[in-house]
Amino acid sequence: MSLQDKVMSAMKEAMKTKDTNALASLRAIKSALLLAQTESGAKQDLTEEEEIKLLQKLVKQRKDSAAIYKEQGREDLAQPELEEAAVIEQFLPEQLSEEEISKVVESIIAKTGANSMKDMGKVMGLASAELSGKADGKTISSIVKDKLS
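^ that's the sequence the OP posted. Answer follows.
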């Protein structure tokens, strides 16, 4: 079942249960998918990797917005953003824990022989490629910095 089909069936459920927040999130996913498909030219479906990147982007947007709202003391606006992010995250593959990410980063550092912050770019490139879709870039970056410093 493609992501678009999963979103459509979840939209139907949200309509039946009158869950407006979930419905807004699902409509955002559907809109982003259609936009990405039309940008790619023909009416071909997106690859699973492209879909994951798209969903991660949507989640990141919601979390960033929520952080800004909290900074400004607007909890009333931050809460719906976080709820939307939670709905979108349901369609993402299971994220790795920090411990699991740390193990992967340690193995990459051992393979490349990295030993200082000068090697961070090399390690980040390999780590990002290996952990794409499974971990947030910000988390990977902080763990790599921690290991190399």
